[in-house]
Amino acid sequence: MNLDFSQIVPYIPFILEGIWVTLKFVIVAIIFGFVFGSILALLKISHIKPLNWFADAYTSIFRGTPLILQLMIIYFAIPQLTGYDISPFLSAILAFGLNSSAYISEIIRAGIQAVDKGQVEAAQALGIPYRLMMKDLIFPQALKNILPALMNEFITLTKESAIVSTIGYLDLMRRAQVVGADTYRNFEPLIFVGLIYWVMVMGLTLIGKRVERKLKYSD
Amino acid sequence: MIKVENLYKQFGKTEVLKNISTTIDTGEVVSIIGPSGSGKSTFLRCLNLLEVPTKGKIWIEGQEMTDPKTNIMKVRQEIGMVFQHFYLFPHLSVLDNLTYAPMKVKGLSRDEAQTKAKDLLAKVGLTEKETAFPANLSGGQKQRVAIARALAMEPKLMLFDEPTSALDPEMVKEVLNVMKDLAQSGMTMAVVTHEMRFAREVADRIMFLDEGTLLEEGAPSEFFTNPKTSRARDFLEKIL
Ligand SMILES: Nc1ncnc2c1ncn2[C@@H]1O[C@H](COP(=O)(O)OP(=O)(O)O)[C@@H](O)[C@H]1O
Ligand SMILES: [Mg+2]
């Protein structure tokens, strides 16, 4: 055994900065994915066929190809096609946001369809317009049921975020590699950021549990 | 007032309602009875267009529901509906269940809506439950809240689809009593029910549906003692 964590001590501030760098785009991507995923879910349950097709095709493409490929295409293809020099940060948000909205739309669609259809009828009978019914009555009930699945998706996104290191975005993962190259020691920095990822995921899990408990108004 | 003219409803190839015409006057209480699957629920659901009729016309308070130009959402506000399985909004407190639609749909202020809601909860005997959630109520309490929720919109008429069928026997009465009070207050009501005593005592008229046809209608005293059709006689024999 040849482990020496003291070697990476000078690099700790550098690595810790990576927490925020990672969180920054993960949070934006989660919000983006949730909002766009909700819209896609609404398109999926709409009665307008072309909207269904669009949302289904979208989901099929983004679930059917590797995330790292989507990331590369956005990062390398956009400059080539448009001349716009897209930053790693923006590429990461786009790739993760677009990708997770495909997954989230499926989760939300299933959640909405699992709400008792009597709820819709009760709302209709009261003369409540579709938009209000979805926003205030159906969506909150769906959300409660799908919270575990959503949390799972957020956790996956947080962990998978490490692949942005491949486009040079200085996230946690990339920083571990930089430190590894600097010190000729890979194990220690990798273990260290591994621990950080684990703490972040545990944090998310705890938040999820808390929200779930708060929503437990019934049964 | 409800007017129905030559109403037909098909689901795919099955004809569920066949040429139904009737009028329910303001203040009238009509009980709709008939064997299971005869189309009672479908009939009721056609009245507020939860089911779209295949053919025929329906007027609610003089507005033609079946006219595509009619603002259905607007007319629905005048029709309260009570379901067998309550369908309270589980994530809202009892009070919020009652105030949501009046505030969001009719534009009442929170104060106005809450005053009205508390008044209604008192009427159905559930004042102490205003902060409770539906999951913590008994079936009878849920149904009384559902009735109050419908009444909070100040409807001109009320539709009930087997409001006591999902209840434990000991809770049937508390719901029927609320409905009886409502009938006595002059509300126009169409009630699908298997409670023959309620139909006999409270209804002004019985509609007997059989295989999608309005086979017989008349005063309860007449219908129950002297049914005209053999189908109605058979049905009454089975159920009484
Ligand atoms: N949404 C639907 N799709 C297809 N068939 C239906 C639907 N709703 C009701 N039916 C059929 O219509 C008939 C009448 O149903 P319903 O109105 O519920 O009868 P009732 O309330 O008198 O028991 C039944 O044969 C039922 O299976
Ligand atoms: Mg029925």
From TrEMBL, chain A:
> Any stretches that span the bilayer, and where are they?
20-43, 55-78, 190-208
* Subcellular compartments: Cell membrane
Q: Which residues form the ABC transmembrane type-1 domain?
A: 19-208
Which InterPro entries did the record assign? Answer: AA_ABC_transptr_permease_3TM, ArtM/GltK/GlnP/TcyL/YhdX-like, MetI-like, MetI-like_sf
Q: What's a single GO MF annotation on this record?
A: transmembrane transporter activity
Q: Which Pfam families match?
A: BPD_transp_1 (PF00528)
Q: Which residues form a coiled coil?
A: none
GO cellular component terms listed in the entry, alphabetical order: ATP-binding cassette (ABC) transporter complex
**Annotated GO biological process:** amino acid transport
Q: How does it sit in the membrane?
A: Multi-pass membrane protein
Q: Where the protein is mainly located, per its record?
A: membrane
Name the UniProt key words of this record, in alphabetical order: Amino-acid transport, Cell membrane, Membrane, Transmembrane, Transmembrane helix, Transport
Which family does the UniProt entry place this protein in? Belongs to the binding-protein-dependent transport system permease family. HisMQ subfamily.
Recorded hits in NCBIfam families, A to Z, give: HEQRo_perm_3TM
| Protein name (Swiss-Prot/TrEMBL) | Arginine transport system permease protein ArtQ
* Source organism phylogeny: Bacteria, Bacillati, Bacillota, Bacilli, Bacillales
From TrEMBL, chain B:
Q: Which Gene3D superfamilies match?
A: P-loop containing nucleotide triphosphate hydrolases
**What PANTHER family does its record include?**
AMINO ACID IMPORT ATP-BINDING PROTEIN, ARGININE TRANSPORT ATP-BINDING PROTEIN ARTM
Q: Species name for this entry?
A: Pseudoneobacillus rhizosphaerae
Taxonomic classification, please? Answer: Bacteria, Bacillati, Bacillota, Bacilli, Bacillales
Q: Mind telling me what this protein is named?
A: Arginine transport ATP-binding protein ArtM
The alphabetized UniProt keywords are: ATP-binding, Nucleotide-binding, Transport
Single Gene Ontology MF annotation = ATP hydrolysis activity
Record InterPro entries: AAA+_ATPase, ABC_ATPase_HisP-typ, ABC_transporter-like_ATP-bd, ABC_transporter-like_CS, MetN_ABC_transporter-like, P-loop_NTPase
Keyword ATP-binding carried by entry:
yes
ABC transporter domain residues: 2-236
Kindly give the Pfam families that the UniProt entry links to this protein. ABC_tran (PF00005)
Superkingdom classification of source: Bacteria
